[in-house]
């Protein structure tokens, strides 16, 4: 029962599956069949049975349908057989017609193929023409590019490349020749960059070679412009009647007008030949290269390269030659190259945009300026010729004015000129030291004689001498100073002129120039002239007469200092009453020189006295004096009388001091002669002879060899000798010993040590002593007295040493 119930349940399911198989696509039968096997066991057998039953049913239905339509099929076959014969006839006719039609169409086919071929050719030609019309402008532009490259029109060539790339190549980009052109353009650009860079290098080399010429032209133009301005200023001054007077010499107005006219004519000639930097250098390579790199979008590379190369050239230009300081041409070449360099940079700055900037040129100039100052400071220190230093200063001024005209700051250069001015003054001082030495060497140290009015005026024109008494004297007459005085005065004025030359064009006020002139003149007087005077005074061949004349000369030079101040005032138009005006120190200079000369007079006079004293030849053992003064002393006194006659031209104090110094030195020398340690014994006769010489000295002092002494002032120089000799001549020891130390003592100036020394030389210590031999025979008490005096003198000497 159970199986029956299962079979009853599966029968509808199998029918459903069969319906699905009949109604669905064969591709979807798989899942349906799978469900048969997924059901109960042996279900597929039942399904197969059901399937066979279904097939048999369909076969029966097909058979029924075939039986139903069989008669119609037979009839159709019969009719088809009837048509067969007609179809064969028709086939024959069609075949024949086709053959005839083929034969007739062969010629048409040939003509048709020709027409087709012609149409294809025509279409191809049209296409080619259209494509060529597109390609021809490209080819023409490329040909134009080649021509521009050949003609070295690189900037135009780059513009043509841009047109090709942006306009023409897109039209024909599919063609191979276009690809070749496109591939070739970068190479052409690189070629253009290399060629333009090569041109730039040639340009840089060219301007390096032409820098000195450019600088020379620029400096000449600046100098001409300045000369023209100065000429106009002078012309204006002359119009207003501002004529220059220097001391008593006037610069002729006609000469000024002639110089002005000549300078203006030169300026007109120079204006006709003015050259610019463009006339000397072709700047087209740098413009072209700049445009090319700008078009290529590589302007920064070009700018960096240009600046780098120019900095290298700047360092080369700023490097001076080792012997530059030897000639002015060396300095001029150095300056012209620098000016040429910066003139080119200034031109590039103003005609290009961005290649160089103001900040770049300022940085380059500051670097160059520091180097220039260091170079000039080093090389100028080697210059010993003031003319070369002056020419260097003029070059620096023109150099500074030229670059200032192009907008470069040059204040530091003018500051450097103040350093060089000090060096210039030093070289001037050295030069004038030689001039002064030559003047002193050539001077005869005698008053200047004049025999007529003309010679007198010549001397007056050279030196500001005023003496009414001398003017009243008749010819021939003599100026009190020697020939060196007017020569020195003239040379001091020449020094002021030379110092003034350096101060010109320094853009300084008249007050500053006046101060500089006075300071440099002070240096000349206080250092150079003073040193030359002192060296002259100390020279061994300069005698007393020459020293006297030197003192007279310094007196007149001292008086001339006020005229030198007036001379400077006339040059600078700065009044001496101005608060900050520097005064000339000539007064102290000549006073110092005069004092040195006076001291040298005293020294030489003493030396001369020593020479005479060395001629003394005393017989210190003589028993009796000769009865007259020694010859050497009389010669000395005659010499002193003649010398003091020369001293009449000296100031009174100088002559009096010299005379007093000579007498004191003579007294000291005579005293030293008596007390000489090598002199062992002295006789009374020798003392008496020595006394005769001292008497002559006292007579000389009392004769007033130099006026101005009061009473017996000059005789007091010999008071020590006089009291000592009186003590021994009178043999007044009791008075000396009794009054010793009293202010009113008769022998106040006799030192116990001196008396003891001389007394010991006179003691009887040998058989040759002739003085005390008689005393020992006649009176031995005197011998004891001498010994007693010696003991007392020694006690006095010992007492003095203890108090000391």
Provide mean pLDDT, rounded: 81
Round the Cα radius of gyration to an integer and report it: 67 Å
* Strand numbers in spatial order across the main sheet: 1-2
- Going by helix content, strand content and strand pairing, the class is mainly alpha
What percentage of residues falls in helices of 4 or more residues? over 70%
Function: Component of the exocyst complex involved in the docking of exocytic vesicles with fusion sites on the plasma membrane.
InterPro entries: EXOC6/Sec15, EXOC6/Sec15_C, EXOC6/Sec15_C_dom1, EXOC6_Sec15_N, EXOC6PINT-1/Sec15/Tip20_C_dom2
Organism: Gorilla gorilla gorilla
Keywords: Exocytosis, Protein transport, Transport
Descriptive report:
The chain is mainly α. The chain folds into four domains: 44-130; 281-407, Up-down Bundle (5 helical Cullin repeat like), CATH 1.20.1310; 426-594, Orthogonal Bundle (Tetracycline Repressor, domain 2), CATH 1.10.357.30; 615-799, Methane Monooxygenase Hydroxylase, Chain G, domain 1, CATH 1.20.58. The chain has helices at 2-23, 29-38, 43-150, 154-168, 176-239, 253-272, 277-280, 284-295, 299-318, 328-351, 358-380, 386-405, 411-442, 453-462, 468-472, 484-503, 510-538, 544-559, 561-572, 586-613, 631-646, 652-674, 684-702, 719-730, 733-739, 752-762, 773-778, 780-803; strands at residues 245-246, 249-250, 449-450, 477-478. Strand 1 (245-246) and strand 2 (249-250) form a beta hairpin. Helix 3 packs antiparallel against helix 4 (154-168) and helix 4 (154-168) packs across helix 5 (176-239). The longest helix has 108 residues, at 43-150. It is elongated and about 225 Å long. Belongs to the SEC15 family. It holds the Pfam family EXOC6_Sec15_N.
